[in-house]
Specification:
25 strands; 13 helices; 8-stranded antiparallel sheet; 7-stranded mixed sheet; about 25% helix; Choline dehydrogenase; FAD/NAD(P)-binding domain; Glucose Oxidase, domain 3; FAD; alpha/beta; about 525 residues
């Protein structure tokens, strides 16, 4: 195995797999991909419903937690992140969501040229292989397979009817011209299996002689020589190694991993690094700052045991065993569900520029990230605050790369976030208690009186948590923004040969799930790199 490559990519998640697949299309370009987790061989990765087993456990999951959150009554939040090839695209609920046109136009308005919606749309299309949608908004020849729901619960129809009865029109394409509406989610699933970024960009290309993938490799630092990133130091089971990049080091370790590695490498807020006895190579106050995440509140209604819902009961257990055997045999049946099946985007008031809340309906009981077990059956709905005003940070706890991080999303630090979420959640509850859904409801798991803002706020502070979309900690911005870490080409300010390519570069959180946008960032960065080096 060589220790020299043209490019070294740190992180085999959504962006890292995309970069590795695209850069090695040229046989003369060599790439080494380092991933801290293992290979994506677990059946729980490939069975779409496996998300229900990985999310609440440490299976393929870093399972981070936050520092105590004052806005959540002092609770520590949970932060699951994928720890395997494919990253969180191998452990998520597979929803294919791009966000609003407005989001990317705002990125460009902040001075990030080339990031308007019209600029990034070609990269969404380049990545996409959509089985149904073939218009000007969608691609049909990309490596990322996007499909409609199969074997979804018939109760989705009741949810969608209730949405429409409460003024939310049906949408046939929430990723097209208009985001608002209610719909069945499209998913990154193909032939009954999860279609992660690894399955799309990495697995088909592992035989390329110019691609080296090293798993279980914990990156310790970027090696910087005279202001240039020249390689990476990593360890496997405590044994140290070094690998060198003749062209660039590409950090794709995510909103937590990328700032952590930068700080361990001496790039970050000077006083914070000095407090951990890390030699400061460059004082960069924005590294680890600007953390944004989607805060999410769930309401659940108990129903009679039924094969139309997932639940802990004799009926449910027998049915699930049958469905697992069916999936093993034919890759069909309810195991092909993303669990999160239908949803909606809507505005809490007419003055906002785009939908500011998102609904995700689930045919089962969702409680504390599936870590709290409830007997019986039910249906649940998430409501997610899409564009939070609150900003948090990620800091080191020590100079040891194996140590956990101090993750502080700072939920509800800005009081506007709570008001918007309550406004949106009241409409959600109205939907869930409307016909025809009301006909199947037995009781609410955590009761809130319709219109009772005070009790709803209490419930939100007691139970709300992340929707798993941390971004922003290596902010893209102009050089006069002291919080900016990378420029519009994703190059790190003041360090040659180093880029950050993942969700951490987002200046503002997009209005929806972050997997598809992160893959888009990987696609766009790959083209930038190819253009810089003319290959």
């Amino acid at each position: 195995m060589s220790d020299r490559y043209d490019f070294v990519i740190v992180g085999g998640g959504s962006a890292g797999c995309t970069l590795a697949g695209r850069l090695t299309e040229n046989p003369n370009v060599s790439v080494c991909l380092l991933e801290a987790g293992g290979p994506d061989t677990s059946p729980l990765v490939h069975a779409p419903m496996g998300v229900a087993a990985m999310l609440p456990t440490k299976i393929n999951n870093w399972a981070f937690e936050t520092v105590p959150q004052p806005g959540l009554n002092g609770r520590k939040g949970y932060q699951p992140r994928g720890k395997t090839l494919g990253g969180s695209s191998s452990t998520n609920a597979m929803l294919y969501v791009r966000g609003a046109h407005y989001d990317y136009d705002q990125w460009a308005a902040l001075g990030n040229n080339g990031w308007r919606y019209d600029d990034v749309l070609p990269y969404f299309k380049k990545s996409e292989n959509n089985e149904r949608l073939t218009d000007e908004f969608h691609g049909t020849e990309g490596p990322l397979h996007v499909s409609d729901a199969t074997d979804a619960s018939p109760l989705n129809d009741l949810f969608l009817q209730a949405c429409q009865a409460n003024g939310i029109p049906h949408s046939s394409d929430y990723n097209g011209a208009e985001q608002e509406g209610c719909f069945m989610y499209q998913r990154t699933i193909k032939d009954g299996e999860r279609w992660s970024a690894a399955k799309a960009y990495l697995t088909p290309n592992l035989s390329r002689p110019n691609l080296t993938v090293i798993t279980h490799a914990l990156t310790e630092k970027v090696i910087i020589d005279n202001g240039r990133a020249v390689g990476v130091r990593y360890s496997i089971k405590g044994q140290g190694y070094e690998v060198f990049a003749d062209k660039e080091v590409l950090l794709s370790a995510g909103a937590f991993g990328s700032p952590q590695i930068m700080m361990l490498s001496g790039l970050g807020p000077k006083e914070h690094l000095q407090s951990h006895q890390i030699d400061v190579i460059q004082d960069m106050p924005g590294v680890g700052q600007n953390l944004q995440d989607h805060i999410d509140y769930v309401q659940t209604f108990k129903v009679e045991a039924s094969e139309d819902t997932f639940g802990l009961s004799l009926t449910g257990s027998v049915h699930l065993v049958k469905e697992i055997l069916k999936w093993k045999k034919s890759r069909t049946g309810k195991v092909t569900t993303s669990v999160a099946e239908s949803g909606a985007f809507y505005k809490t008031n007419d003055d906002v520029p785009a939908a500011d809340v998102q609904l995700i309906w689930v045919p089962g009981i969702v409680d504390n990230h599936a870590r709290t077990i409830n007997l019986g059956h039910g249906h649940s709905c998430h409501i997610t605050l899409l564009r939070p005003e609150s900003r948090g940070e990620v800091k080191l706890k020590s100079a040891n790369p194996s140590d956990s991080l101090a993750i502080d999303p700072n939920f509800f630090d800005d009081p506007r976030d709570m008001e918007v979420l309550i406004d949106g959640a009241q409409r959600m509850q109205q939907i869930l208690e409307s016909e025809p859904l009301s006909a199947i409801n037995k009781k609410m798991l955590y009761p809130v009186g319709l219109g009772d803002r005070k009790t709803m706020e209490d419930e939100i502070r007691n139970r709300a948590d992340t929707q798993y979309h941390p971004v922003g900690t290596c902010k893209m911005g102009t050089q006069d923004d002291e919080m900016a870490v990378v420029d519009e080409q994703l190059k790190v300010y003041g360090v040659e040969g180093l880029r950050v390519v993942d969700a951490s570069i987002m200046p503002n959180l997009i209005s929806g799930n972050t997997n598809a946008p992160t893959i888009m960032i990987g696609e766009k960065a790959a083209d930038m790199i190819k253009n810089d080096y003319q290959f």
